[in-house]
Amino acid sequence: MKHRCFWVTDSKLYQDYHDFEWGVPVYDDETLFEFLLLETFQAGLSWITILNKRENFRAAFDDFDYQKIAKYSEAKYNELLQNAGIIRNKLKIRSAITNAQLFIEIQKEYGSFSNYIWNFVNHEPIINKFHNKKDVPATTELSDTISKALKKKGFKFVGSTVMYAFMQAIGMVNDHTTNCFKYPN
């Protein structure tokens, strides 16, 4: 039997996410935006809640196409508010639209969102050496820095805790515990 990180339940969805996505470096803007959107909706909720609704989010938000999301009308916003398959939080839905617009602005300025976000770690993942749950932080100085930088650009729901979870999801930090089969040796 594979030994996984402490947070993984017996849910196949959770196990697959852990085994194939979490902590794997992501450099393409499309996937980066997907995780950014999902992490902002996760704020204050459990990740499994978001994973269980991920395909609903994908359908509701045009396959996470930030170009389309950036142009959402009030009618589309109101449609999303009625969609029981997603998290129907007015501010989070509004932030998805705003964040998509700002995501595009960063692409224009830096060539890609990937260039921008990965520059915070010199384009190399940070491999942490955490042994158990109590070792893994909810925030770091780096997540504080990224949070402040994104907020300064106008992004919403990008607090330090959300940013650290985003960093973990996209592999900027590899926080697989040392006893996990995914820990890099």
CATH domain class: Mainly Alpha
What is the count of structural domains?
1
**Looking at this structure, what is the CATH superfamily?**
Hypothetical protein, domain 2
What is the number of helices?
A: 9
CATH architecture: Orthogonal Bundle
Structural class: mainly alpha
Q: What is the third-level CATH name, the topology?
A: Endonuclease III, domain 1
Shape: globular
Protein name: DNA-3-methyladenine glycosylase I
Binding site for Zn(2+): 5, 18, 176, 180
GO molecular function: DNA-3-methyladenine glycosylase activity; metal ion binding
Keywords: DNA damage, DNA repair, Glycosidase, Hydrolase, Metal-binding, Zinc
Short descriptors:
EC 3.2.2.20, 9 helices, mainly alpha, two-stranded parallel ribbon, Endonuclease III, domain 1, DNA-3mA_glycosylase, 185 residues, DNA-3-methyladenine glycosylase I, DNA repair
